[in-house]
Amino acid sequence: MSYIRxxxxxxxxxxxxxxxxxxxxxxxxxxxxxxxxxALLAVADGKSYVDAxxxxxxxxxxxxxxxxxxxxxxxxxxxxxxxxxxxxxxYGEVEKSRILLEVAREPELEKDGTATWSLTLLQRALRSxxxxxxxxxxxxxxxxxxxxxxxxxxxxxxxxxGSVKRKRKGGVVTVTDTEAEEKRGN
Length: 186
What we know:
9 helices; two-stranded antiparallel ribbon; two-stranded antiparallel sheet; mainly alpha
């Protein structure tokens, strides 16, 4: 080796070594995870960063050095890709739950100006609420509702897929389709 390792690989446990070996051999794993696992195993076996990079398919040994530092810091999570660039996500679980809370609320005719929700009216309500989301887009609302299992009904508002209110002799009842998840393919 022609240089001193600033951050040498920490001791790899038997369990970690077993997982790294499985990932390195798996044909069903993503290629980037396989390459990282091969590089970490090579370094754990005493090979230099240059040899590990060459064997795993990295173009530079700096990639292996960064991978080793990440592995020392966060363990097997180093195999996974980190954020690939672009703007950071604005809406996390808290914001998504706020959107779902708003859609679950019955719209007030006087306050919201409607008896049913549309994407634009949901957007307007969320932007004007005190604890709302001032810059939320209809696209974000749509994506959040779809992920939560809501679908747009042409004659109604956004409603939960698989359950519907029906008028019967005894009054209005909620009918639930027990196979809705299966039919949707989730």
